[in-house]
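Hey team,

Filing this mostly as a record. A colleague (T.K.) asked me to run one chain through the structure pipeline before their review meeting, and I want the input and output archived in the tracker in case anyone asks later how it was produced. No errors, nothing strange. Just documentation.

Input sequence:
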Amino acid sequence: MPPLRNPSLLIGQNDLTSLSYLHEPAVLHNLRVRFCDRNAIYTYCGIVLVAINPYYDLPIYGDETIMAYRGQAMGDLDPHIFAVSEEAYTKLEREKRDQSIIVSGESGAGKTVSAKYAMRYFAAVGGNASETQVERKVLASSPIMEAIGNAKTTRNDNSSRFGKFIEIHFDNQYRISGASMRTYLLEKSRVVYQSAGERNYHIFYQLCSAAAHMPDLKLDHQDMFQYLNQGGSPTIDGVDDLKAFNETRSALITLGVTETEQQNMFTVLATILHIGNIEMTSQDPDGESDDLEDGAFISSNDKHLTTVCNLLGVSKTELLRWLTHRRIASAHEVIVSRMDIQRANFARDALAKRIYGELFAWLVQAVNRALDTGHAKKHFIGVLDIYGFETFEINSFEQFCINYANEKLQQQFNSHVFKLEQDEYIKEEISWQMIDFYDNQPCIDLIEDKLGILALLDEECRVPQGSDQGFVSKLHDKCSRYPHFMKPRFGNAAFIIKHFADNVEYQSGGFLEKNRDTVSEEQLECIKSATSCRLIHAMFAGDRQVDQSSTLPPPSRRRTTPSVPVASLTQPPRRTSGPGKQTVGAQFRASLSALMLTLSATTPHYVRCIKPNDTKQPFQFDPARAVNQLRACGVLETIRISAAGFPSRWLYQDFFHRYRLLCPHKEIDRSDIKATCARILAKHLKDPDKFQFGATKIFFRAGQVAYFEKKILSEELEAERQSRQKLLSSQYELQERLDALQRAPPTREHRRSLSDASNNSQQETTVEDDYGYGSVRSVETTRPALEAVNWSAGQHNGPIADAGLVLRMQNRISALQSELSRTAKRANDLEERLMNRVSSAPTNPNLDRFKVEELEMENKKLREHLDRLRVTSDSTKELIAQLGTTQKELDRRRDENIQLKSVLSNQNVNLKSLASSNYGSDVDIINEDGELATAYEAQKGINRQLQEELVAEKKFYSEHISKLKADIEKLREENEKYQKLLSGDLSQEPKTKDQEFAQNEIIRLASEYLTLLGRSDKLSESCRRYKNQIRLLVNKLKEVGVDDVNDILESSDTVVPTGHASLVEMAPVTRKKEREYLGMFEYKIQDEGIIIKKLVLDLKPKVAVTLLPGLPAYILFMMLRHMDHVDDEPKMHGLMKSFRSAVKKTLKKRADSVEYNVLWLANMLRLLNNLRQYSGDTVYQTHNTPRQNQQCLRIFDLSEYRQVLSDTAVSIYQGLIQVLERQFERLIVPAILEHEEISGLSVPTRQTPSPPGAGPGRLKQELNSVHENLQVYVVDSPLRVMIFKQLFYYICAYSLNQLLLRKDLCCWAKGLQIRYNISHLETWIKENLAEYGQKSVEEILAVLKPITQAVQLLQARKSMADVQSTVDMCADLTAMQVCKILNMYTPAEEYEVKVTLEFIHEIRKKMHERAGPNADKEPQNLLMDSKMIYSVQFPFNPSSIRLEDIELPEVLGLEGLLTKI
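Output structure:
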């Protein structure tokens, strides 16, 4: 490895400060690898996020990505703008301190997009549910500001030509309550001039594209306007200006800009375009002028002049005069003189720029008014989108202001980074020395001092005959004493400033005019007199004061309030032409000071945007361009500050996992990892200044980690690693050769196995093939028989082998012989260690003893094989047999024998210990003469006889029960028959007196019977209460010492007969009475509220489980039947409305309760099915009894209510899914991704707090709880299957999304662990959901395929020969997901090689071919949509419950409110 080069372990790190060597080449190489090879556009550099513009739309900004980063600490997942946004939002919540995100970079680097995505994140996580929809307005402000403030440049198609600072305000609950915006230094010169290849502001081209819709503006094609055709590049690839214009109008409507204001705004914009087309001539085209002097003239018939006057409603004569004349005021008189063409054109352009600047300022105020909701503003997060350091061939006043702003921001950035670095050392309690960092205060003094550049510029502007040359002369005279000021080598019209990023030469031409920003007062007065455009008066209000509260109110806790308005710092305050007016430079300095005060009161977060190339090519990296930007934006300064101290920091656990092999086994103390790490460092790193021990980390000087990798691991472990790789490579190459010699080679499969732990899911059902290392398919591949190889050149009956192959095989034999000798030596060493362990009281002596025996046998076999190889070294057949024997015997039989012997030994020990405990020292007597075997056989016979008797008894009782059920059903049918006959007789008119007497007698007896039955029920209830009171009194008597309480209790039991008492205690809900009921409940309209309250609002789940499932739905339907019976439709509508409102109120109050959601989902579906079953529709009457068909609704058609109830059930179902997802979210990562149950495969991962008992077991407990709730409340079986399908989809999506964003999980060992954890879920599905059918089980298992295939990808081989099998294996993953995993994959250095770019590109190509030709047109997403909910249907499920049998339980408290009919 070359000097100062980082080891491969650190290449591609997502944090530049974690590199061992911190210098420009290492930083550039790391960025290039991440950007070009892995397509990762984000990289951390300490607290800074480096964002490289990909010039390609990446699908990494969707709602799923937002939710994936929500709640995650910065650094847990891949670097992302959302991670920085989440860090700011979390600190706002935790520290209650305002935050700011500072986005900087040069034009085309992606600042605006980054700021837009940050605001989108805040709008998503801090969304306000109120009607104001503040977050929607915040997002709507972006297209408006882009239209009026962005333009196409040679570097960027959507370049922001102004800086902005947006504050997003939050209330006490950290929900968005409003927003406000400041703007800085709009590039107004672009309105009148554009360089080649550039455009004016987007809004002008959008307006021209819509000219046909606004004929009154007299617009034409964009090429017809002087202000739009200078750049020669009026279009942007992929941009439809008309569509963009409609989006801008829609955004204006969202922000409350009225139609009239919009029309006025477009009128002003059209006016600017027409002003630019007013033609100046050197001769009077009307021939009316008597002036002999040369000057500027405008034809009175100029159509654009006429259009301007008509659009604004101004005097044509006045405007014509003041566009060509100027007024000069002296001490004694006022002179009006004609301007020359150059000066007139300049004055015209100044007027156009001023109008646009005023319109821009007015629109910013309009946006701020819309974003100010008037709600409480307790906190804010600011997003600063400001220009980065700029240097061009010709640098003018704009570049000077931009670089001045960057000097101020860089000073604040350096001090903040330095402070954080020192705070880290203090927190870790390590000794440190003060770190020097670059302080650019001298450069700022050069600009801001009393005799600095800004002061001298303002002074020259006040001089009547001031000039740019005079300004430069003063600079050379006054500023030469500043170390950051330089004179150019040639010429006197420029000056040089030594900025922190680079030396910049500024040309003084135009400095004074741009600083003055002067416009003819007469021209302004003429424009202000407009009568047709009211917006002009709002824009040019003379003493207009900016309302601070409507723009960006400084928080009350800020001690300093800027003295200048902060709504739009693009425009200077309203000023006169007097000497007291404020220059642009002075105003920009004041606004910059106000910005720095604001940022100082916040916790800053930094995003540095980098432009990778100047040709806008996707994923092309120009190192020279990148390094200049890294210097300019302070990233390299951050690295320098970090490198000055201890840049490399390792958690003790991570360091131990990586370098534990450097410590002798006997010195490892796993209970004290810190002490073990200290031993490793004391042995291998002698200089104590190279590292320090912190509270949780080890701090290293630059280069020490690389030293460990190179000098320690590489030298001490390289030999063993190479020998292993050599053996594996030789075996693999031989197999490859034999494959090539086959006539019809079979399909290749992955041939790598370590453990069958991942086969848990394949042992019962073969849902899918597992291509991973632990798969069943990876045991052995088909190889050609050695006898089929023809070693003679003249015969061609079998595969032909050349002489070179034979020689190479002989060389391999020699290498294998030496390898076997080394293996034998290692076996001897291992044998000695094991023997020592056996002699030193091992924890498992039987297992160790068997291992020693197996190793002895293995050693013996190896020696025999070695002898055979020496004798028959020219026998390739023996070599193949040797390899096969080594693989099979050593990898399979040895482990199986050890395990079986260990189990047998443990069983023997247990039997002996059991015998010893029963027989003492006479253990052998229990098996004399084979008595134990005889007793065992006898016991088996007894067990067999008992089992036969049990089967016979079961059969007898089953037949007996079936017979009794048939008898009961027969009696029930006869009873119904007699009841119908009796009811028919009673309903007929009596024909004789005997019949009349019999009817009256039957009615009287039935009435008496019912009366007696009611009295019996009341007496039984009284007896039950008295009995309970007696028991309470007996308990009290026992407490006071009365002994004869048993006699009292016995006497009390005789009050109620035993049979009757048991009947009362059971109190069945569906008890059948002899009276014939119609299955209805009657109630009074005034009791409706109380009934709904008791039936819905007061019903608790613990009470509902004791009732008939769906009882509230049955009661409600029986109430509806009575309304249908009496034809009371208004009452029916009122009941349904009250019921639905009560259910919604209950679920809103108990939104986080699974029990409540399941309870009312079941009841809502029960009511829906009752409405179907008793609707009278033939399709629903198939399973009805004749009695149920008679009870169908006769009058009401409730089909509309069936749809309403179905929609309500869907809403409850979705709410239930959301509740379950929130409960499972905190368990998925610990259970699926982080739990490590397979010992010996631990890899260092980030340490995150997990819930107690986190793991697959905890997740299965939650699944069992859900399943139990669904069963208890009798949710329909198809719906249960759908709920679990949805849950397992969420588990799969959430875990896969986390895997795709965490590099620490993408390795072979973690893949095996995760696969084993998933197998727990698969086993749970098969064991607990089998009752719903095999098809349902397979359907639920199928939703886990994406995460299963992802971890199989981690385990699979990744060579070019495995491309097709890998593509086939990842059938449910997208090409983007597969490539992301492969890019993040970390190979095990001892056994694997790095995944090559060729392999990844071939995978992408194959997967695109599989997806078809239209794959690129479909939207691509990296993450799965975890919020996706499958469409749900509620199949018809009729009930066998007889309505007339349903009674009101006492626990509901509805007695007296409902009367059964």
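Quick notes for T.K.: Confidence is low (pLDDT under 50) at residues 543-579, 743-805, 837-845, 1048-1074. Residues 621 and 1262 are 49 Å apart (CA to CA).
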